[in-house]
Structures are given as structure tokens and as C-alpha cells.
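For consistency, the fold was encoded as C-alpha cells, which produced the following:
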Amino acid sequence: MKRGRLPLTALRSFETAGRHLSFSRAAEELYVSQAAISRQIRELEAFLGRPLFLRLHRRVELTDAGHRLLGRLVRSFDDIDRVLSELTASPAQAVARVSVEPSLAAVWLVPRLNRFRQLRPDIDVSLEVDPRPIEFRSDQPELALRFSAHATSWPR
């Protein structure tokens, strides 16, 4: 079967109706009419060449084929939802915390940040503009940029 032929909307309608055993509740969950759910399920049944529901007076039951398909769809949609959640969650981007003195930030660093972000969109640069010297501890920035008019013996 070609993937382009997969009736994805009908599969989602069937999965929802199958979980609820109700076309009306599926329609509510998917924000469509009950007639749209019925039509989608009829199209899926025609596509498969077999019934998926037994339509009884004021209720529906799954056929054996319906039970089989529903089990697979529930697991598959759960897997897809999990992957989509992982992909759309705030990415665990690397954060480079940089302490920089004000004049160096304004004249040298800030004009270069856009280019850096183009080259490394996976790294979020967090700037701390501060003129004071810095002691590196676990809660401090990983990089400190300071300007000095004379040579120093740093690092010691």
C-alpha cells in the first residue's frame, strides 16, 4: 500500500470513536460533526473492505477487525504523540553564559552575536554585562570577557 493512500483522517476518527465506542463522543473530541465521523469511518471500512463497527440501536461495538486495528492505532498514535512532544518541547539547547564588561559588550561582542547565532543556532548565548572581576564557580558564567590596558599574569 502506498503511503499517499493512507486515510489518516479516517484512521484518527476511527481510533477516537473506537476508544469511546461512540461516534458522538469522537466528534466532540475532534471538534467535528457526528456525520463527519460516520462518513470517515464508512470510507475507512470501504478502503479496508470490511466493517470495523457493529452498528446497533443507539450504540456501536467493534468487530474483530476493529479490535485488531484499534489496538495498533492506539499504540501507534501514542508513539507519534510521544515523538512530537519530544520534538516540540523546548530544546535542550546548550547555553553559553558570558560575562562581559559594558564597553566591550557594546563595541565588540554584541555586533558579532548575530553572526554567531547564524553559525551556531544550537547554542543560546546568555549575556551578563558586568564591569566587576569574576570568580569562576559552578553558578557563574563559563566565559568572562574583560579588557585590560596592561598585560596581566592571568590565569594564575
Observations:
- The beta strands are 53-56, 59-62, 94-100, 123-129, 143-145.
- The mean pLDDT is 85.
- Residues 94-145 form a domain with the D-Maltodextrin-Binding Protein; domain 2 fold (CATH 3.40.190.10).
- The longest strand covers residues 94-100.
